[in-house]
Amino acid sequence: MMKRSIIEYFSEHDGYKCGYCKKPNSNYNYGMWAHTMTVTDYQDLIDRGWRRSGKYCYKPTLDIICCPMYTIRCRALEFKSSKSQKKILKRFNKFLMGQDEDKSMSRSNEDMTIDDAEGREQFVETTRVHQEGIITDTDLPFIEDASDPRNEELETIPTEEPHTSKVVKQEVAGPDPTKGPCKKAKLIRRQRMLEKLKNKGVDINSLDTTNKNKEKQIEDFINELPNEVTRKFEIKLVRTSPPSAEWLATSKETHEVYVKYQTIIHGDKPEKCTESKFKDFLVNSPLLEEYSEVGPYCGYGSFHQQYWLDGKIIAVGVLDILPKCVSSVYFFYDPAYRNLTLGTYGALREISFTRYLHTMSPSLQYYYMGFYIHSCRKMRYKGNFCPSDLLCPETYKWFPIKGCLEKLEIVPYTRFDPDIDSVDENYPSENDINYIQVLSRGEVMHYKLYRRRVGKRNENIEEMQQYAKLVGSKTARSLVVVR
After folding, report:
1. Residue 35 Cα distances to 4, 60, 282, 288, angstroms
2. pLDDT band at residue 123 under the 50/70/90 scheme
3. Measured in Å, how far apart are the chain's first and last C-alpha atoms?
4. I need a labelling partner for 337 at 20 to 30 A (CA). Which of 138, 219, 411, 478 fits?
């Protein structure tokens, strides 16, 4: 039997409270209830700004809502981890080796977890107040950091008063011009090693040093572990729709972690985290289970990626695996391990997972992170996964986020495509609406025939025209609309 996407479209457009700025009646979107959905159709929908929550799919009306939401994707194959992201990977490895760090340690702004950052500001603005007024950056002393090059010109010397512990900073002369420049310890060690090899008769000019200078990839940091570790850690991928035996066996434990996360991290009341609501939100999915000769080993569809530590689940990533991408739906974890920055760690592992699936399915090369909301500071963290692109809300083409941010600094809603002549290449024609598939009384027919049967006066053709524009010409002919 042919797999088909069967949906109900909702044209109502009432405003409701924004979940980000909390303004009433300021958030608008179009919606559809998906009974079933092929992964190809959903891929096409998210590439037009749609996103699912359970079986409900919605498309924000970006030009009128208070906090415009732009679809964001990371180019996983080109991903370069930042300094803080590398630290998170190393910290987790140290934890597995038993080298625990102080759980009360503070985290930098860049080290915010993916979902933790949704509940607080990613960047905290601090103001230092002096008796005479506000201290500016130029009034503050240099930070005592050995790696700061500005400190190389300063030296701590005692004052002439021997009975005080007071010290002052005094400028000293630069390097001795009669001597050669100082060399870093790492370079000195390398030169000594090469000298030893040369004395042993080794041709040092023939040595391959390219690997030494090669930048580490995300997988290098993840696999940077000895054979024996103190804690046992593994990640398991289980299919949730239709529910696999692995999912059914772990559903209770997964739900318990979810309740802890929602009540402690987000402050939800327990009655909002019931098992049925949890399943509606993060388990039940319209995506059909599909396999392909050119697809990944696990097939396409909806999954949970479970993070197991010493035999128990400590975190779960909710994922959709689609023809072109891994789409992150949600991530939650046991708050007892929040010091490990599991949100960011999970995103890094999902990027690595995307790269792994690409080796089996060449077209699968992106990591979708949902929506980027520049007008809401706490949601800007997604831009830290580089390189990333934002979807133009008018032409539905992708553009590097760096150039988009310059426009978003001026206005909340903007067109990213700089070409004024560029258009939506998937915009439906007047004739396309006639070939929308409609399910009525158990029979699938084209919309043109359906209108004849029910009578043109009894059918709202403007609603179907609006629907076709929102989903695009290609998907409008593919989805089956319940009427």
Report:
1. 10, 21, 16, 10
2. very low
3. 22
4. 219
Distance separating alpha carbons of residues 371 and 19, to the nearest angstrom: 13
The three-state secondary structure class of 95 is: helix
Which amino acid is it at 28? Y
Q: Percent of the chain having pLDDT more than 90?
A: 65
> Measured between alpha carbons, how far is residue 92 from residues 257, 292, 334, 384 in Å?
19, 35, 15, 19
CB-CB neighbours of 229 under 10 Å:
13
Rounded to whole angstroms, the Cα distance separating 432 from 417 reads 25
Q: Which of 16, 24, 9, 129 is nearest to 483 (CA)?
A: 9
Q: What would you report as the CA-atom Rg of the chain, rounded to the nearest whole angstrom?
A: 28
Amino acid code (one letter) for 306: Q
How far is CA 141 from its chain centroid?
37
| 325 DSSP assignment | E
User: Could you give the CA distance from residue 61 to residue 142 in angstroms, rounded to a whole number?
Assistant: 47
Cα separation of 246 and 266, whole Å? Answer: 28
Q: Could you give the CA distance from residue 467 to residue 454 in angstroms, rounded to a whole number?
A: 19
Contact assessment for residue 381 and residue 112, using Cβ atoms and an 8 Å cutoff:
yes
Q: Quote the tokens at residue 214.
A: 């090669």
Please count the helices (runs of H) and the strands (runs of E) in the chain: 12, 19
pTM of the model: 0.78
Compute the distance between CA of residue 58 and CA of residue 431 in angstroms, rounded to an integer.
Answer: 25
What does the pLDDT look like over 284-327, one tens digit per residue? 999 999 999 999 999 999 999 999 999 999 999 999 999 999 99
> CA-CA distance, 266 to 268, in Å (whole number)?
6
DSSP 10-40: E-----B--TTT--TT-B-EEEEEEEEB-HH
Residue 41: what are its φ and ψ, rounded to 5°? -65, -40
Longest dimension (CA), the chain: 103
